[in-house]
Every structure is written in C-alpha cells, then in structure tokens.
Amino acid sequence: MQFGLSDSQLLLKENTRKFFASECPMASVRRLMETGTAYDPSLWSKMAEQGYLGIIFPEEYDGAGLGKVDLIVLMEEAGRALLPGPFFSTVALAGAVLHEAATPEQKKRYLAPICRGEARATLALLEAGASWNPADIRVACADGRLSGEKLFVSDAAPADFLLVVARDGVYVVQAKAARITVELMNGLDLTRPQYAVRLNATPAEKLGHSAGLARGLEIAAAALAAELVGGMQRTLELTVEYAKIRKQFGKPIGIFQAVQHQCADMYLETESARSAAYYAAWALEENSPDAAAAVSIAKLYASDAGRTVGNRGIQVHGGMGFTWENDVHLYYRRAKASETMLGDATFHRERLARLVIDTQDALAKSA
C-alpha cells in the first residue's frame, strides 16, 4: 500500500485544479445555479476532452482506464470547486453501477456514450421510505415496464437515461420514454438539483448483472466522501483567509485562541476524512476484504465531518457566513445534502455493525 499519490496522480490533481479554476470559477457556479439544472453543455464537452467522464472505465468503452484512487483525486478537486451539474450523478453513481451491473453489450450502448460526453445519466434509488438499502425497494417491474415513484433523484432533468433500482434488479429507463414524469423538488444544494421521478408502466431494460449494484454503490459512496473532503478543504481555506483579515478590537480575529481552535478542529476533521476516503478507494481497487467496511467508515466520517466543518466555518465568519454573497454557505449546502445521500452516518454505522457481525458468524462457522 502506498501512503502517497503517484507522480501521475499528483499531476492529475494539479491539472484538475487548474482546469476547474479556469473553466468553473465561483462566478460560473453561481450562474449555473440559476439555470434550474446546473448543467452547462460547454463545460461538459471540455470535461469529456480531458477524459474526466471516463476516468475509471476501460478503454474498450472509450474510457481512460485509470483506478479508483484517481477517481478520488478527481472527486476531491470537484468538491473543492463546488462543481455543479451531473458529473457525480453520471460518472461516479450511474457510471459505476453500469460498469458493475451491465453486460458488455449494454456497456457499449450506455457506458461508452458517457465516456465520450454524449450522454448523461443518474441513479434512481430512494423512495418514500427514505431507505438507501436496496432491500427496501418497492418499485416493481411487470412485463418489462416499471411502476412507482423515486424521490430525490439527482440531476434527473439533464439525464438522457436513468438507472432505476427495482425489487428484482436495476433497469435502464430512457428519459424521453412514455409514461415518465420528472418534477423538481426543493433541495438544499442548488448546484445539484433533485427530482421526483414517477413511472407508470414505463418501458425499461434490465441490466444483465444487477448483483453488481452493491459494488457500484460502494464506489459512488467513496467518491462522494472524497467530494465532501474537497468541500471541507475549501471551507477551511476560506475560513482561514477570513480570520486573517477580519479585525476585532483592532486585531485580526485569527490571533484569538478560540478562533484558532475552531480552525484547528476543521483541519483535523478534513485530514481524517481525506485519509478514510483514500483508503476506501485503495481497498476497492485492490479488492481488499475490508473494502465494504472501509467505504462505510469513509462515508460516515465524511458525513459528520462535512457538517461539522461547515458549522465551524460559518461560526468563524459570523453573520457574514449566512449572507448570499459569501461562498461558505454554498459549500455548507452541498455538505448537508451529501451527508444523507447514499446513507448518512447512522446508516453506515449500522451497516458496519452488520458487516462485523456477519464476519464473526462466518469465522465461527468455519472454526
């Protein structure tokens, strides 16, 4: 196991940061927030040219063929830039599930266009029961048609197709299919709109290896943890910058111990979450026996840390932190929305406990 990034990964990190700084500054983020979909076709095409849309997918499907750690590097920088639009939903979520659950023929039809920047997608899993456990799904398929409702589906409006999780597997539904409605829901994160998707005997195609859903969701959860880390890092940077210039009693507030403690705690939370996210990616790449547990640890820690760092950042900014002109609250919105996506800390603590118990039971039976 390497405890540092390789030269190529460091280069990827540097180039990605420069790319987002140039092509997606905060002025562009705020502009896209007002569009309703947060999707920019020009930015999407440029990301495709950089190879970001196919970063972890095989070259035979027009991907870049890189590893899970490379995806984490990219997602961290995307989180730091507060990248708007369907990148996470398409690549790290729907793309990862497609790669793990689709047949080779289905990958050529659905995954390859994603890698080339010709298609966008998302995953529809959550229902009224608010459970991220696929075992709790109620949407059903009958004669190749799906019926039911999915809630809080990220980036459904700009998607060309949706992966819908049903009781008996994962299905591809075309966004322009008959008897499907997509309605915008009120959400915290304006850079990643969420939608209610209603299916009424909507035509669907089942993926050939739906058992791969669990693996795809683990990759997505690790990627989301890394995105949270990037947001925490930028929140910390903005907070430290503010503490250096904001004055009270004629002195910068950064010299006061109470403020220093806040910033130190933010740094600790950020670095700890980063370590957990990168280990989860490494474990997934190496098919380590503890990969599932590492993913849950990364997501539960990042979920809590993202909220805590956001809280502390706003506290240091004081009243400024709540103003629309300040960027800190936008990162806080993303952190709060991502906290519950793919399972909050409580969900993953319970999952982690089940994994431990199942492992102990298996060892006892083999003894």
Descriptive notes:
Helices cover 54% and strands 14% of the residues. The chain has 367 residues and is an alpha+beta fold. The protein has 3 domains: 114 residues, Acyl-CoA dehydrogenase/oxidase, N-terminal domain (Butyryl-Coa Dehydrogenase, subunit A, domain 1, Orthogonal Bundle), CATH 1.10.540.10; 88 residues, Beta Barrel (Butyryl-CoA Dehydrogenase, subunit A, domain 2), CATH 2.40.110.10; 150 residues, Butyryl-CoA Dehydrogenase, subunit A, domain 3 (Up-down Bundle), CATH 1.20.140.10. The strands form 3 sheets. Strands 1-4-5-8 form a 4-stranded mixed sheet, covered by helices on one side. A hairpin with a 2-residue loop joins strand 4 and strand 5. Helix 4 runs antiparallel to helix 8 and helix 9 runs antiparallel to helix 11.
List keywords for this structure.
367 residues, Butyryl-Coa Dehydrogenase, subunit A, domain 1, four-stranded mixed beta sheet, 11 helices, 54% helix, globular
